[in-house]
Design brief:
Strand content: 15-25%
Strand order of the largest sheet: 3-2-1-4-5-6-9
Structural class: alpha/beta
Largest sheet: 7 strands, parallel
Length: 247
């Protein structure tokens, strides 16, 4: 399916996977709606897209705030008239060992990684149900399959996203023609690591620096592949790992 002219909302678009995906999809002719909290970064990305003859709209907001998502959808519909896809990409990964009791960080992960996804789906679903078409792509993680030290809460949030995606697919795809995909990457070179405050975790992650990890562009390719399928084909899960990563 050609995505040219499709209206696609991307959360967490100010860097990493979100930014790479916006560039990829805009390059294929989609109208991308960029949202995140960092307005300056979003405007820089919009300018880059427009300089390459692409179409982009910036709507700043926080995925944990229902009102922000409702405003995002309202603004998108006013500008473009419809919504064809939502990419729930915004996420946090402040890894820590449970015994450290970094409960504020736990709550932030739950708010962004789970509630942010729920808020996005709730905001776009009425439009997609009315259209009897659409695509929801949720960025989960290989952590949804395998626990790793310090990742108890993070892994739990990504497992929730994976299962929520499957529930969405079963409820929405057959009846309303809304496809749902869970993208589950292994280690990716993004800003996620910057949120880690546990010094013991930082020390352990030095081993990972010896590994050739995925780039954000690799995940953007997987997202594009999922979107570009004919409406009859739902890509349920994309599990993509660095060649060097065992689990």
């Amino acid at each position: 399916m050609d995505i040219k002219g499709k209206v696609i909302i991307i959360t967490g678009a100010s860097s990493g996977i979100g930014e790479a995906t916006a560039l990829k999809l805009a390059g294929k002719g989609a109208k991308v709606v960029l949202t995140a909290r960092r307005e300056e970064r979003l405007n820089e990305l919009k300018e880059k897209i427009q300089n390459n003859d692409g179409t982009a709209l910036v709507v700043t907001g926080d995925v944990t705030e229902k009102e922000d998502f409702e405003n995002l959808v309202k603004t998108t519909l006013k500008e473009f008239g419809t919504i064809d896809a939502l990419i729930n990409n915004a996420g946090l990964m402040p890894l820590s060992f449970v015994k450290k009791l970094k409960t504020d960080e736990w709550e932030k992960m739950v708010d962004v990684n789970i509630k942010g996804v729920l808020n996005g789906v709730a905001a776009v679903l009425p439009t997609m149900i009315e259209n009897k078409s659409g695509h929801v792509i949720n960025i989960s993680s290989s952590a949804a399959h395998n626990y790793f030290p310090g990742g108890a809460v993070y892994c739990a949030t990504k497992a929730a996203v994976k299962m929520f995606s499957e529930g969405l697919r079963q409820e929405l795809a057959p009846k309303y023609g809304i496809n749902v995909t869970s993208i589950e990457p292994g280690a990716v070179s993004t800003e996620l690591m910057d949120t880690i405050t546990d010094e013991d975790i930082k020390e352990q992650l030095q081993e990972m620096q010896k590994m050739t990890v995925l780039e954000a562009e690799d995940i953007a390719e997987a997202i594009y592949y999922s979107l570009a399928q004919p409406a009859r084909a739902n890509i349920n899960d994309v599990f993509i790992m660095p060649t060097d990563q065992q689990r």
